[in-house]
Amino acid sequence: MISLATRILICGLFLFAAGFATAGPLDRLDADRYGPGTLIAAIEELARYSPPQAVEPLLELVGHPDRDVARSVGWLLRRMGQGSQGAAAAGNVLADAEAEVEERISAAVCLGQLRHADGQAPLASALANDADESVRAAAARSLGELFRPGSASALAQAASTDESAAVRVAAILALSKVPDSDASAIVSALQDSDPLVRRQAAWSLALPRFRDATGLIGNLLRVLQGDADCRIQAAAAWALGMIGDPSTSDALEAAQDGGCRLTAQAASRAIEMIK
Amino acid sequence: MRKNATGPARRRVIRTLNRIECGPAVCSLLSILVLAAAGCEDTFPKGLNDDLGFSSLVFVQRPAPPNSGAIKAPDSAGAGGNVLLLDPAVLGGDIHELTGLEEGDVNGIDVSPDGKTLVASIKTDPHDSFHLFSIDIEQARQGGCFGQDGDVGQACTRLTFGPADDTRPVYLPDGRIGFLRLDPFGQVDFQGRGRSRVFYAIEKNGGNPMRLDTGPGHVFGVGSSRDGKVHLVRWTRRSGASVLQPLSLDPSGFDGLEIGGSLLDDVPMGPVQDDEGRVFASCVAEYGTWAAGTICQRNQGGEWPVVLGSIPAGNGCSPSGRVRDAYPLKDGRFIASYANVPQGCLNASDGDRGLVPDFSIVIVDPATGNRMPIYNRGTDADIYPRPVVERTLLDDDVNLGVLSSSCEPGGVVIEGYMQDANGQLLTSVARLRVLEGLSGAIAPWVMEIGGRDVGAVCGSADNYVAAVQADGSFRVRVPAAVPLRIQALDHYGAAVKTDPLWRGGPKCSVRACSGCHAGAEKADDFGESLAAGLEPADLSDRSAQRSIDFARDIQPILDRSCATSGCHDAQTAAGNYVDLSGSLRGLDLSDGPGGRTSNAYQSLMLVDRLRNTQTGRVIEQRRPYVIPGSARESRLVERLGVPCRFDCTGQPDWAPWALGAAETHPEDQPDWSGTLTDEERWMIVEWIDAGAPFFGRGATP
Description:
Distance between the termini of chain A: 83 Å
Radius of gyration of chain B: 27 Å
Number of domains of chain B: 4
Mean pLDDT of chain B: 74
Helix content of chain B: under 10%
CATH architecture of the largest domain in chain A: Alpha Horseshoe
Largest sheet of chain A: none
Number of helices of chain B: 7
Shape of chain B: globular
CATH class of the largest domain in chain A: Mainly Alpha
Structural class of chain B: mainly beta
Largest sheet of chain B: 5 strands, antiparallel
CATH class of the largest domain in chain B: Mainly Beta
Radius of gyration of chain A: 24 Å
CATH topology of the largest domain in chain A: Leucine-rich Repeat Variant
Number of strands of chain B: 38
Number of domains of chain A: 2
Largest interface: A-B, 55 and 47 residues
Oligomer: heterodimer
Strand content of chain B: 25-35%
CATH superfamily of the largest domain in chain A: Leucine-rich Repeat Variant
CATH superfamily of the largest domain in chain B: TolB, C-terminal domain
CATH topology of the largest domain in chain B: Neuraminidase
Mean pLDDT of chain A: 90
């Protein structure tokens, strides 16, 4: 025999569960009640028909601490033609010194997905001024995702002077994507004190758009032959293979017999590519 | 110092433990108690898992599983992964760290067919990209995968380089390694959210990278089957909506030949084929925690019904009971990674990533749902378990005995014997057909018709027929840089066997022929064969090609002989039968628009299915009139009959696998004005064996 209290409890649980089962995607855009996975699933569902009523709750989520949520929000707002509103909201979060670091990172990520021109200024400002390196790195990456001219100088500045290697890596990657950049800052980064910055520079210099850069081959060869870190030598070998200049074959042949096994393996692949 | 327990009594204890099925806590406790009583301590001799066909396994251990609780972010996870070897593969077996990464990560592994090497997707530092590494298992267990100054050790060879993330490697049936590539400078994805994840293949040494998928969208869920195909799932857009589409890929093709199918609700991740030819995967829900769900099995209709419970619910959270990375064992059970969420995950309001599941390695029995723990460490995610065992990636019984494909002036020369894998001559073979595939790059569209192999409409349109010598030997010269497939034909012109792999010739598939001769294998005794002294049959002449287009070549036959008034026209649609859903259907072979193809084409390809109205799962199905690639199994040909075509002396006049002349279709009698000619019957056979393409070459949209 089930007691009355048990029946009430079961009934309550059923109604509770039914409430969740029937909650529509608009209802589920509630960060107070739902976690990131549920929020993202709701955004995916809303993307099928993009109801205008979703704009307000989406704007509330531009600085959600989970950056995957913010990324999805930026994407859907862009699809709904609400890039300007989204950029304003995310820009405010990014510029808010009292916002949590995760919120500012998310706002930067959201601005990158919005791809709106209005996002450029707050991102550049955060890249130059934010106290947290993770926020600056996120801002750099998002400037690259905008694919817009006008960010090259800010990114080049960050690539050469930011104290954080993570920011410099992100800035070099972004420089490779923005249309008005040249290779000079990236070539200079081959001499960076941090090996991971040098590796990113070598990777970026393999892009076809930088093939005519001044000193490209010579600097990559210097890295191949002189960098103390095998990973960076290997990145330079790979870049030389991608560039495909036959004049580098001898150096790559020599690298196959050098001290680093990793470099030898990369040089072997690079020689195949050149041939 | 650990002790080795090798006595028969201890073996019996371990065997018994391996057969006990229980919950992880109970089993762990039981194991400890029993082993302590038996004096086994915590290590066991090799070979105790002979029943399962392997003695050790490799897996990945990381602080949290990729995409735990997250949606549509399969590879976004923190660092801290390593590849581990459990030897022997039993509870309490010895653990050997193969990679020794301190701040790197691992995103997918696979064991080579010879069981000696594994390929792993590894990043060595947080800012690194994922690259593929080949790891010698025996050397790596002694240490030595990574050395000083970022170098690799003797046990490891790095296969890919550059800024792209190369993940989820699998050994392909043709010997190469396939993997997913996400290039930060690559093509923007179909939603404009990021970059497309695409499918690549490289040689075992890392050389000759080729992108094999050709369409737009992300691909994931890579696996292979022993018919030579690679299976993927593509997330793309169709009619304005994002959809999940299954792809089967012929990896040896020049650009890869894609075969699509019905859209997916439940998503198969990383299919694996067992020794009996069954294909299993871990199926996950379209929306939910990706990469973990339950075990499903591919049926003949290309559906993926689950074989273990159901996919645990949880729209965004990670409930206990999810299974990922399932690998079928010889005894019908699976080794898999099993999710346990200590606090439970009851509904969608849970904290999602706040409830990171603890994945452990288990053996699970789909018949009972019981699971036996093999390994678990704390709350780490122990994932991607793969037995270290020799395995076959390609079915031997469809090996046609092709010995070599080498570049010669004027094309690729293919020579060999029409024989089975045991070297026995296929005596029923009268001719050799070479199918030339349409590249997926040329025809990037996909037919939306359900049914097995129906996507072959995208390929194999052109073909040639060449002689096979009395001893089964042959030599043919075919065009270079084109994916080719060999078929053995019987005396009636129908395919007895079809080469499972598309062949492009060594290097010839991607480059000019110069310098390609090296490496071609020659059988010792081929020089003594009848074909050895002959000039190769030249099939590289485009004028010798025969291309069959449905609208141009097949529909006129149907119009004249079948879709006539009172028969299979639209009004009559004779051949009524009650379909599996209880409706009366007829076979309408009239011309006219039907989706992207035609009415008649759709009718011939229709797979009659009965589905569960609630779940959509296929309960029962009947094969279509036409099975692309197999005329001998196609009901259409069985009904029509096929007269002898090649070397008919001593052969029955009509194909014994179909109806004879006296039994042919009632209205298809010799004295009927609309009867089919022999040539028309052979053309229908040829069209079906060539993949039943709707568009022939030159008619490709």
